[in-house]
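Tutorial, part two.
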Amino acid sequence: MDKKERAVELKHNGYNCCQAVLCAFADETGMPEELLKKMGAGFGTGMGCMEATCGALCGAEILLGLKHYQGKPIIKDAAALHKAFGQKCGATICKELKGKDTGVILCGCDDCVRNAVELTEEAIEQRAAQNEEKE
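Running the prediction step on this input gives:
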């Protein structure tokens, strides 16, 4: 099973969107799934209120730090991931994605999770390619 579908499976088995994205990458982080689940616990449902950033995107951003932070800023990587998610999903704020005020769902949770995983994989690959070019 690929990471995107693993994350959706986790989402349907008691994990919030952030936890699902984080735990789909447990093997790559070297961190226990239970620790990743704890790290993402407060980021579900747009940080618990739908008013903030999508939990799946939060998980993707946390993964960037876990995978790439080596004492140097990763702000450009984080900004690019945020922008790509917004373009792919139609928004980055949970309530906007879910159409809370408009009644129009831009991107459901399953697809937010899939997109966050896909974009994280792409960001990891891009960073790895950049690092190889520097060597």
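The mean pLDDT is 93. In part three we will examine how such features are distributed along the chain.
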